Amino acid sequence: MSKSIQEMSIDGDEPPSQYMVLKDSFGSVDSSPAESLFPIIDIGVLSSPPASCSKTDIDNELEKLRSALSFVGCFQVIGHGISNLLLDKMRDVAKKFFALPIEEKEKYARAVNESEGYGSDRIVSEKQVLDWLYRLTLKVFPEDKRRLNLWPRDPNDFRGTLDEFASKIKTVNNILFKAMARSLDLEENSFLNQFGDQAMMQARFNFYPPCSRPDLVFGVKPHTDRSGLTVLLQDGDVEGLQILVDSKWVRVPAIPYALVVNLGDQMQIMTNGIFKSPMHRVITNLEKMRISVAFFNEPDPEREIGAVDSLVDEHRPRLYRNVKNYGAINYECYQKGMVALDTVRI
Ligand SMILES: O=C(O)CCC(=O)C(=O)O
Ligand SMILES: [Fe+2]
């Protein structure tokens, strides 16, 4: 049997060809230095403005949000109300889980045709270039859809921490969806209503072991997220995420107690293309491992979503048809190497 990513990482092996991208097919791994292209937005000012906060302060924050989402599709959030203690604890339980012996992690293994559970890349074609990471994917909302048998029992505070963290992320999402609507002069619930009360949230724990060829192997290849909105807890000090801005890859700086937010395809549809779902990727690192936890927020797959009416007019015709269960469309396209948003374009 061939060696696992972790074994190759520990032995410092040259990764096999399935992991190597053809030279320049995804652009070089070089990136621009982390510029201040991704603003830091204080959502405390938007959700419960302190008395000292003027209307101008609030409008400034909303304008930063609107402009970031219209141009780069990504920003960092502070004032999110999640304590440093809880942010560190979430990282800590993730780290402890990935440090468990393989047999222990395999208890939560992803079944062949499923997305939930622990494992490395799902192989769907021979031509596929494999990502250098392990993932643990768990549905956290709707709560009655949780598959608790896949939630690690070790470390023993994993489940409680994820439960607490996910409900905080839900609050952050609600603040952001309302702020995004306000920033476009829409009724506050214009997006939230489309997500519905059965909106889905998946947590994905990403573990990137060190790799001997960071010049040719990606942690995650370039992609856009199928979600509506993705909220990411980055590693406290190891960078890796890069976003494509004007055909240049730009590093997203690691800010220990901020959350990274990037827009997903479904919000690009709902905003009629005004907000951008950015292409992004994760690079590997020669010596350091990296851990991140992403929360993908999606509308209820049973509901049809589409551009908010007032964002469609003669100057801005409807760009995408209304869709249901975009996750399935996105997955099918991924298997065929197609860009999912292109297939729903009018
Ligand atoms: O690890 C990261 O920084 C981002 C991971 C990512 O893009 C994803 O899981 O979709
Ligand atoms: Fe992503």
Automatic annotation (TrEMBL):
Sequence ranges assigned to domain Fe2OG dioxygenase in this UniProt record: 197-299
Keywords from the named record: Iron, Metal-binding, Oxidoreductase
Gene3D superfamilies: B-lactam Antibiotic, Isopenicillin N Synthase, Chain
InterPro entries recorded: DIOX_N (IPR026992), IPNS-like_FE2OG_OXY (IPR044861), IPNS-like_sf (IPR027443), Oxoglu/Fe-dep_dioxygenase_dom (IPR005123), Plant_2OG-oxidoreductases (IPR050295)
The keyword Metal-binding is assigned to this record: yes
Statement: the UniProt record of this protein carries the keyword Oxidoreductase: yes
GO molecular function: metal ion binding; oxidoreductase activity
Alphabetized Pfam families for the sequence: 2OG-FeII_Oxy, DIOX_N
Family: Belongs to the iron/ascorbate-dependent oxidoreductase family.
Protein name (record): Fe2OG dioxygenase domain-containing protein
